[in-house]
Automatic annotation (TrEMBL):
EC number of this enzyme: 3.1.4.-
Membrane-spanning parts: 14-35, 41-60
Function (record text): Has phosphodiesterase (PDE) activity against cyclic-di-AMP (c-di-AMP).
Record's protein name: Cyclic-di-AMP phosphodiesterase
Family (UniProt): Belongs to the GdpP/PdeA phosphodiesterase family.
Keyword Nucleotide-binding carried by entry: no
Domain of life, source organism: Bacteria
Chief place where the protein resides: membrane
Record organism: Kineothrix sedimenti
Domain GGDEF: 200-328
Keywords on record: Cell membrane, Hydrolase, Membrane, Transmembrane, Transmembrane helix
Length: 681
């Protein structure tokens, strides 16, 4: 076998060099014969001796050299295999199906498997599926985890075509087989270091005392400084315990600088500072509540501060007593379990009324718009704004696309009424055609752009005014010229009624308009039973003086027999889930507006002892409408926000698409279970 092996390349040429020199010597010898015969004979003898020695050495050394080369190659292959076997980098060979066919010691140590492990790589790394193996791409890489370690897995195709083409055993025709080389690069230490750096990044927070003035007024004057000192100490001590900096920037405002790791701690314990501050009590009748806004993951400190300002605005707009964490991609809410305290002063209402008067006076046309499927509060508030526009001698239109059964009696009072223009109530298409460069859009009873009656109007109108009493969410109407959003107000009609009193002395409200505004307050407060405060009754008294008739209003909202039966059926079929949550469905096929019946049924269920919250599901226009209600123990707003909806702490709702009623009930139960386990409700 050794004799059949031939050398080639540079080594062969090197060994044949002596033969080539001998040939050159023969040529030189012939030349010397021409010069001197005797010298040529001497050189001939030397050439013969030279060839004998060289050929003898070649014949003798060739087997020795071949033995050495074969031995070296064998030892070199063994060394390579040993080096690969003992390589510190975890390495394995897979077939094209992902099955392990060879592993080195480092790989076996990493995955805690013996040398003969031959199962699929997916059994060790579930994320490395067959679809992720190199196919069209010759090389892929992605992150994987094993136990407590993180790796970057690099997979590379090794084609077998060239190897098998020289084989006498396997046919080469159309053979496209390949192996996969897998390398694992440990990035655990790197990720820990990056996480540590990320944890040390700074976050900016703002802490506002929600009811600072009201709390001070509830305690005697000599003890007020002590109450302030205790609150300051509570906040400063808590922030200091998180290795943060807390600086009081105003009498009721704090600027907080924390590490991101501290924010993670606060989120884990759901911002328990919100509850800790309420324990400060030195005889004050009203517990102090705070709102927290945190800005996180911004590109700069300035951006984090801007995030914190947006977050605190959201927290206050949603009623206070809660924390909001805002990042570039997300907004997370915590707390919000208590009602916002009603402000006794009307200064804000007077300021907003003056600002509204200035805006409308500078415009040619006023367009008033509420939310989709307008309700009594939305329409009543729109009527109030229309009265302001009429008083200021401006053309006004109210956008209503879908007149529901409950709204029909009120709309009829304005149609064919000589006191009002025929185009007072228009649809969204007419509004788009009428809008001009000098028009103002007044949005009432909604602050979420996507659920307004005509979202396109928000883009067409440069001047926008927002009046709403719903808690703000992540999606808000931006760039509003005037925004008056008060979560403590019972209804938008209450807010508009207050503004009407400050527009001017010459304003006169008709009895029809007073009835509409009074109806909005009555419906949203469930006949003055929920969310009513001093200002609610003052607004109702103003409307009564302006000509609102309780009897007329009551007649407007008498129910049909079918509606009453549907509501009664929903109440009778209610399931009391977890001994506290009433869940039912409203299936009134004969009811023109089943969503209203469902909302009324949800209110009725709160009269059952032990029920903390009620949820009524109604199938209407190929969607599932959910009406959620509570009295004081559960914040149904945050429950509905989980399902893409929103509302108030006690009145909220959402819509579900592509779901059956049974699936909707299952989703609500799962959401309740999750939030109860996490301590969110």
């Amino acid at each position: 076998m050794k004799n059949s092996i031939k050398l080639k390349g540079r080594l062969k040429k090197y060994l044949q060099t002596s033969v080539y020199l001998g040939i050159l010597l023969v040529i030189v010898n012939l030349g010397i014969y021409l010069i001197d015969y005797r010298a040529g004979l001497v050189l001939t003898c030397f050439v013969i001796f030279y060839f004998v020695v060289v050929l003898s050495l070649l014949l003798y050394n060739k087997p020795v050299i071949m033995n050495e080369l074969i031995s070296f190659a064998t030892q070199y292959g063994q060394i390579q295999r040993k080096l690969l076997r003992d390589l510190d980098l975890p390495h394995a060979l897979l077939d094209d199906e992902g099955k392990i066919i060879w592993t080195n010691a480092a790989f076996e140590k990493t995955v805690h498997k013996s040398r003969g492990y031959r199962k699929s790589i997916t059994s060790l790394f579930p994320t490395i599926t067959k679809e992720k193996l190199p196919g069209e791409a010759d090389e892929v890489e992605f992150s994987v985890s094993f136990e407590d370690s993180d790796y970057v897995a690099k997979l590379k195709k090794i084609s077998l075509r060239d190897m098998e083409e020289g084989s006498d055993i396997i046919e080469v025709e159309d053979y496209e087989g390949y192996l996969i080389a897998l390398y694992l690069f440990d990035e655990t230490a790197l990720k820990i270091a990056l996480q540590e750096v990320d944890d040390q990044s700074l976050a900016v927070g703002l802490i506002y005392l929600d009811n600072y003035d009201e709390a001070l007024e509830s305690v005697e004057e000599v003890r007020r400084s002590l109450l302030i000192a205790l609150i300051d100490r509570k906040v400063n001590k808590y922030i200091a315990g998180l290795d943060g900096i807390c600086k009081k920037i105003e009498k009721d405002k704090f600027l907080v600088i924390l590490r991101k790791k501290a924010i993670a701690y606060l989120q884990e314990y759901r911002f328990d500072l919100l509850e800790d501050v309420k324990t400060v009590n030195i005889g004050n009748e009203m517990a102090v509540t705070i709102s927290i806004g945190v800005g996180l993951n911004g590109l700069t400190y300035a951006q984090n501060y801007e995030f914190s300002r947006n977050a605190i605005d959201l927290a206050l707009g949603r009623g206070g007593d809660q924390a909001v964490v805002k990042t570039p991609n997300n907004t997370i809410y915590y707390g919000g379990k208590s009602q916002q305290v009603e402000k006794n002063t009307r200064v804000k209402a007077r300021v907003k009324a003056h600002a509204l008067k200035e805006i409308i006076s500078g415009k040619d046309k006023v367009i008033v718009m509420g939310h989709r499927n307008a309700d009594v509060d939305s329409f009543g508030a729109a009527v109030g704004v229309a009265r302001i526009a009429h008083t200021l001698e401006r053309k006004v239109h109210i956008v209503v696309n879908n007149v529901t059964t409950s709204l029909q009696p009120m709309v009829e009072m304005f149609k064919n009424n000589p006191e009002y223009d025929d185009d007072l109530i228009i649809n969204s298409q007419q509004a788009i055609e009428m809008v001009g460069n000098n028009a103002v859009l007044v949005v009432v009873d909604v602050n979420k752009p996507s659920i307004t009656d005509c979202p396109e109007m928000l883009r067409l109108c440069k001047s926008i005014v927002v009046f709403d009493h719903h808690r703000q969410g992540t999606e808000v109407i931006e760039n509003a010229t005037l925004s008056y959003v008060e979560a403590y107000a019972s209804s938008t009609c209450e807010m508009v009624s207050e503004i009407l009193q400050y527009i001017g002395d010459n304003i006169k409200i008709t009895s029809t308009e007073a009835d509409c505004l009074y109806s909005g307050i009555m419906i949203d407060t469930n006949n003055f039973m929920t969310k009513t405060g001093v200002r609610t009754f003052e607004a109702a008294a103003f409307l009564r003086r302006s000509g609102a008739d309780v009897t007329r209003v009551r007649k407007l909202f008498r129910e049909d027999a079918a509606d009453y039966k549907a509501k009664a059926d929903a109440v009778s079929q209610a399931e009391i889930y977890r001994n506290a949550y009433a869940i039912s469905i409203c299936t009134g096929d004969d009811v023109l507006n089943p969503t209203v019946a469902g909302a009324q049924a949800a209110n009725e269920l709160l009269n059952i002892k032990g029920v903390k919250a009620s949820f009524i599901l109604t199938e209407y226009q190929n969607q599932i409408y959910v009406s959620a209600r509570s009295i004081d123990e559960v914040n149904v707003q945050i429950i509905m926000e989980r399902l893409g909806g929103g509302g108030h702490m006690n009145i909220a709702g959402c819509q579900m698409e592509d779901r059956s009623l049974a699936e909707g009930i299952g989703i609500i139960k799962h959401t309740l279970d999750t939030m109860i386990e996490n301590g969110e409700i």
